[in-house]
Specification:
alpha+beta; Npun_F0813-like; DUF7469; Phosphorylase Kinase, domain 1; 2 domains; 47% helix; elongated
Length: 221
């Protein structure tokens, strides 16, 4: 549809109708757009490929925002239909599943740091970065972005990463494999699962239900 510059648009946030979080909205002229995906400045081709796929192949009304440090793709919405627009699409998981997975990730990371020391932590981070790269997780394709996900409270994220179910499954499979490799057994799983107590009860139950019916059930239980 359009390739726009930052000075062409207004970006603001509105309250999610069901959750205690803000939803970023881009306004161009009289139209509103919701954030779909963010790319680094070096990922111009990937950003344009997603934008073209959505507009040319899927018939979506989208804009590509070009900024000095990043590219972002936004999809058109009607604000009165925001509640429907923030519901997960096919293959996309609710935000609580991503938040829960990040809690598990941080718990394993801290466990390795506390119990195994700096050398093992460095190796874990390297292997983790490779897992993120392999599974092509949006908004986590640079080391500094992954560093943020290791330390920022997932429940305080303004924009929870928009990951597909197969991507999240791949990440959790890799996390289990890497954790078992470092600890020599799977005892770390029980300690990591305790971190899910930070989630609201309803979100925790929804994530555990998804986990139980997935191929991850034997690893994370």
């Amino acid at each position: 549809m359009f390739i726009l510059k930052r000075q062409d648009v207004e970006i603001y946030s509105i309250q999610h109708p069901k959750k205690d979080q803000q939803v970023p909205v881009l306004r161009y002229q009289t139209q509103n757009f919701r954030l779909i995906s963010v790319f680094s400045a070096a990922q111009e081709e990937e950003a344009k490929a997603l934008w073209r796929d959505l507009t040319d192949n899927r018939g979506k009304a989208c804009v590509l925002l070009e900024e000095p440090e990043r590219y972002s793709v936004w999809g058109k919405i009607r604000l009165e239909q925001l509640e429907e627009s923030v519901a997960p699409t096919a293959g996309e998981l609710p935000a609580c599943s991503v938040q829960a997975s990040l809690l598990l990730l941080q718990a394993v990371y801290l466990d390795i740091e506390d119990m195994l020391g700096a050398r093992q932590v460095a190796a874990f981070r390297k292997e983790l970065f490779e897992a993120f790269r392999q599974h092509q997780l949006p908004q986590a394709n640079l080391p500094e972005a992954i560093e943020q996900l290791l330390v920022v409270n997932p429940l305080a994220l303004v924009q929870v990463p928009n990951w597909q179910e197969h991507q999240l499954q791949g990440l959790l499979q890799a996390l289990h494999r890497i954790g078992k490799q470092h600890f020599g057994n799977a005892n770390f799983v029980e300690r990591a699962m305790e971190s899910l107590q930070e989630l609201p009860h309803q979100d925790r139950e929804a994530f555990l239900k998804w986990l139980k019916r997935s191929q991850l059930a034997e690893r994370w239980h």
